[in-house]
Amino acid sequence: MITKDSIENLKTHLDIVSIISQFIELKKSGANFKACCPFHGEDTPSFVVSPVKQIYHCFGCGIGGDSIHFVMGYEKLSYPESLEKLSSMVNVALEYDSDYKQQDLLILTKINDYYQKLLVSQENASNYLQLRGISSASIAKFEIGYCSTSSDTIKFLKQNFLNLADAKEFGIIDSGQNGLYARFIERIIFPIYALNNKIVGFGGRTITGHNAKYINSPQTKIFNKSQLLYGYNLAKETIYKKNEIIITEGYLDVVMLHQAGFNNAVATLGTALTNSHLPILKRGEPRVIMAYDGDNAGLNAAYKASLLLTNNKSNFEGGVVIFTKDLDPADMVVQNRTEELNKMFLDAQPFSLFVIDFIINKFDTHTPFGKQNALKESNDYLNTLNPIYQDEYAKYIVSKLNVTRNMISTNVRRKNKVQLQQVDISELEIIKTILENEFLLDMTLNTIDINMFETHKEEFNMIINDKDNPILRGLLLNEDIKIYNEKQLKLKLIMMLVKFYEKKLEQIKYGQYEDKIKQIKYIQKYIIKLKMGILVPFKSN
Ligand SMILES: [Zn+2]
């Protein structure tokens, strides 16, 4: 792990303009620099870099952040990888803490070499791979190996003076009542690489009929199944080039798909797709294809993955391919059905349609009761989607269930453009001002209430709860929005309070309130003080 101190030190050496200039051409524009956004196609520059704030922001696609974020996005690197890249760009060294040292990891590479050599000498193991149609080129590419008995592995570790404590820590061996034993016994071995191209664990398939067909390394400091995708290190380049990733359920599927030319295939490690996988999938924003088996387990997994990939927050493009019973992608490659596979991937069923079908299929829609439930559940799902898709998929539900469109309710809120008047600008100016100045932020929080904002409640709330939101970053770099000094801000807050109280007065005048007169007098007193220029803090009662 890179130490926090050395990251902070590196950050002080980063100048965002000179960093970004090394990747794209920036043109000076006022206090900032501009370019056509490298993350979305455009002809007029809406990508702004601020040397003062050391951030960038694209007004077209909303992407933005600091130098580190830029390198992550532009070079498709993980956070630590981009730190390493920046450290060499500005020639400032990083320090690593002793959580685990790079040389400790060598033990995984050495045991991997050993497994690979064993495969060559073990006829039953190489026969098995041959039988499955795996070519020797694939064996080399994926560094497929074989582990024999427990005592063989331990003998190898000891003879090569490898640290047994490390071997235990990284899940190669463990200790039980009878001493040390190897975790992988008589299995085909698939080394698993992390995003940084280092081996972090292994997957093993039994060839001697062991109970568990597949096992993986246990959870270790560096091996976390739900954050890894098998084959990603080899598939990465094609994923970016093709802008597509195929996610399968097994190691052999990945190996065989690559063998047939689908070099963008990866697999989850015997687990479902989880939230923790999403950061990897977001890299380069490829179309995602989930290629799953047609059994119940596969269908359920595809359903859950589709929910994960389509909810409003993630919103991935792509779809599901289901392999009919007794047929998996590996079998199809062996049978030379590559063209057919290609067509299946092209025709993947969009995630949302797959989910809606899955939901509707649970019910007997020939009965009114079943139809009603199918309608309700699919409508509930519809409302979790990004608003643009809701209308589109509402039509699909209409046709699938043969109901009328008005039976489906969407929660799409259409903001009325005409409403964007002066009030918006001054609300945004207040928000921008207090975003820049902590003292004025405190003053504002002590004086007004969020409900006094008419159109920009959400942004005001973000200052407190979601300060890194791109909307706020865009606001900071929007030169059309002014920043107030303390005196100007006070005046704006007073105007806001007066407006709020006057509205309240109206409500009281025309409403049914007890103590009407008393309340009116009370509020009028506030308004008078405010109009005299005294900033009286808001009290809810
Ligand atoms: Zn952009």
Automatic annotation (TrEMBL):
Signal sequence segment: none
* Gene3D superfamilies the record matches: 3.40.1360.10, DNA primase, catalytic core, N-terminal domain, DNAb Helicase, Chain A, Zinc finger, CHC2-type domain
Under SMART domains, the record lists: TOPRIM, ZnF_CHCC
What is the E.C. number? 2.7.7.-
Q: Which cofactor does it need?
A: Zn(2+)
* GO terms (BP aspect): DNA replication, synthesis of primer
Supply one GO molecular-function term: zinc ion binding
* InterPro entries the record matches: DNA_helicase_N/primase_C (IPR016136), DNA_primase_core_N_sf (IPR037068), DNA_primase_DnaB-bd (IPR019475), DNA_primase_DnaG (IPR006295), DNA_primase_Znf_CHC2 (IPR036977), DnaG_bac (IPR030846), DnaG_HBD (IPR031988), DNAG_N (IPR013264)
Give all residue intervals belonging to the Toprim domain: 243-326
- Return the GO cellular component terms, semicolon-separated: cytoplasm; DNA-directed RNA polymerase complex; primosome complex
Keyword match GTP-binding: no
Which terms are listed as keywords in the entry? DNA replication, DNA-binding, DNA-directed RNA polymerase, Magnesium, Metal-binding, Nucleotidyltransferase, Primosome, Transcription, Transferase, Zinc, Zinc-finger
The record's annotation in PANTHER family points to: DNA PRIMASE (PTHR30313:SF2)
Its protein name is DNA primase
Q: What is the lineage of its organism?
A: unclassified sequences, metagenomes, ecological metagenomes
